[in-house]
Every structure is written in structure tokens, then in C-alpha cells.
Amino acid sequence: MDRIKITGGRKLEGIIPISGAKNAALPLMIASLLTADRLTLKNVPNLADVALLARILRNHGVDHSIEGKRASTTHLGETFHLTARDIVDTTAPYEMVSRMRASFWVLGPILARMGKARVSLPGGCAIGTRPVDLHLSGLKALGAEIDIDAGYVVAKAPRGGLRGARVVFPKVSVGATHNVLLAAAMARGETVIENAAREPEVGDVASCLVKMGVAIEGIGSSTLRIQGRDRLEGAVHTVLPDRIETGTFAFAVAATGGDVLLEGARTSLLETALAALAQTGAEITEERDGIRIRRNGSGVDPITVETQPFPGFPTDLQAQLMALMTTARGTSVIRETIFENRFMHVQELARLGADIQLHGDTATIRGVKHLRGAPVMATDLRASVSLVIAGLVADGETTVNRVYHLDRGFERLEEKLGRCGAAIERLSSG
Ligand code: EPZ
User: Which residue's alpha carbon is nearest to atom 43 within ligand 1?
Assistant: First the structure.
């Protein structure tokens, strides 16, 4: 298993290109199941999760090709061509869905197009219980009959297919919004989703569905009004920049000090996170080709933050923020309101010398003068990258184990940081 070795204490200076958003690329790829025509996606990041989903989609009968070869230095991601002329298999097996939670989102589109689907209950990062009740109640509202059989969701559409309905989510769920939105695109008549997730990745999928011929009102708001179509067309769509990768590098620069341009990043995708970062004393400027983050000399100021659905502070940046706060000049408080078990990084940060107390959903972080390098590991993607940030700050050497978590969601992480002066290298276990 590969490891990443970091020798901390260096400032970051230079340019980091921001990749296409993983969490938009995945549902956009799944949208290809809705049409027999070709869906072309540009700026797809080269990540383990993307490759795994491509395999899952091929299993359903999606032809997938990647256009040409790109220069390794550019942040322009890959161009995918996806064509689901026929869906040859309506079952998404346990072996695949258990490895990536987002693959559960094939349920809505396969059900809508084929009238039936059998999809394993999901797995994914160990960050909480992560039920799927909202996905299922949303699809039931569109007329689906749903049974759970031997770990599988078995869904059937009524005769004549799914029909538009009003779906009111009692809680904001990104995945349930994707699943119901994708199904509603092919349901008869109008579907209104209330309390829809407003995450920019949901908006990106909705915009792509519009290009595929679906009329959608309210994109970016919490009420989506969707006019389903029985036949969707192909389209060409560019995946939006990854706001979580942007925030991760922004927090890294704030932690080490330095001056980095996050090329291709958009402030509108992470205003709350950038506002929090500004409170810690970092300087943030929007430039023509991205966002510049600077912190020179001054220390990190402590803050109090609570994670919330978009436009609030994202749970996917909570661990990275905590890494930054470990060396703040005072006490910070971070409350996690989205997932009940998303603090696995706490004990690993403690191994580096961080002073963090956990009480239920709240972490109190007392800033220390120095972190000291150590071997660490994490069990989810964002927790792993928080350890990389802490390693960049710590004196001496930190090795981050289980790098496959990072490869799921960060494209060429060590190369991007290395080019900005970080002493970071991947140790292959052969
Ligand atoms: C998406 O997960 C993201 N994944 C997650 O990013 C992100 O942390 C999360 O949204 C929140 O922003 C992708 O986009 C691929 P939810 P998702 O449904 O859709 C509860 C990463 O690191 N809930 O919005 O699975 C749930 O338990 C990943 O890239 C129900 O109760 O998250 C949680 O408490 C990790 N019933 C809350 O809602 C349901 O049916 C929000 O979850 C569904 C969810």
C-alpha cells in the first residue's frame, strides 16, 4: 500500500491548478444512463472514484471512451464520451456499490428509463450511518414500488413509467436530490422537489439535464421544478471546478504560510469557507484566472464554525479546517452537524501533537505552538487530506498511510503541492 512522506515546515508558493469536481463528475456520468445518445463530459478529474464508476456504468451497458491524451501539466481534465445505447443490466451489484456510495445514484435513472432496477444498498466512507430512506421515499413519491431483498433495493415503476409528483425532503440530502432529480428527468409530467440540496454540484447536474432537453426551473435554489421527458438527448457539458479541492489547498496555504494562486477556482462556490479562512487571518483575492491565498508572517486566528448544507460551511472541509486550527493562537470550536461520526482525524491529529477535545458533535481545538511529525492514517478521504495539511506544518517527518483514500478524491495531490515547494513524496510499496 502506498504512503505519502512529508517533511513539514515549508511555505507554499506558486500555482495550483484546480481539477473538475469529483462530486459533480460522478452524478454527471450517471446522467448518461438517461439517454441512448452520447453524453460528452469535459474537465473530468482523473480519480479512483471516477474510474470505479466508469466500470460500474460499463457493466450496465454504457460505452465509455476517453478522448486523446492530455498534457500532465494542465488542469484541463479528461474528456469522457458516454453512450448508453441499451441498458443491458439493471442490477448494480454489491461488489461495486459497496465500494462507492455515489454509485447508488444509478437507481433513479435506471428505474426511470427501464421501469425497473435492482441496486445494492451502498457502502462508502465510514463517516456515519448514512441511510437511504430519503432516496427511497422520493422515488416512491414518483410511483415506484420498492422492496428490500437480501441487501438490494428492488424498484419497479408503475405501468406507463414514473410520474411527476411533489417530493418534500424533511432533511437536505445531496444524494437523494441527485437520485430523484435524475429519475424525474424521465418521469411523466412535472416533479417539484422541495428542500432540495443547493450544493453547486446539484446545479451542475441540473444544467446538464437542461442541455439534454429537460426543462428545469429553480436551479441553485431549494425548490426544483422538473418537466420530465420520455426521451433525452445527448449533450456536451463541462464539469465545474472542485470547491472542496479549492478549499483544501486554500487551508493548506493558510496553515503553512505563503502565496498560491488556485487556478480555475471560483469564489462563488465556497463563499462561507473563504469567509471563515479570512477570519483566521489569511488574505484572499479573486483574480481573473482564480483565487489567490496569502498568509505571510502573521499567526492563525482561532474561529468558531458549524458545518451546514450549502451555502453553509461544507462538512467536506471540516477536517481540513481543523488541521489549520491546530496551530492557531487560541481556542477554536468546530461543530459537525451533517455526519455524526466524522471526527476520525481527531485522534490522528493528536498523534502529531494537536490538542483537541471532542464532546458529541463538537470539537474544541486549543492551538499549540508546534506539531511534530509522526506516522498517521485515516479512514476517509477528507480526513486523510487533513493529515497531509498537518504534516506540511509539523516539524520533521510525517507519513500518511492508506493513501488510496486520497487517490479517491484528490488528483495528483503530491505533484500539485510539490510544485509549490512542499517536501512531499509518494512511497510505493511495490
Ligand atoms: C454527498 O454525500 C457527498 N458525496 C459527500 O462527500 C458530502 O459529505 C455530503 O454529500 C454532504 O455534503 C458525493 O457527492 C459523492 P447526504 P451524500 O445525502 O449524498 C442523511 C466526499 O468526501 N441522510 O447529503 O451521501 C445522511 O446520513 C463525500 O466527497 C439521511 O438521513 O450525503 C447525512 O447525515 C463524503 N437519509 C445527511 O443526510 C438519506 O436517505 C446528508 O447526507 C440520505 C441522507
Answer: 132
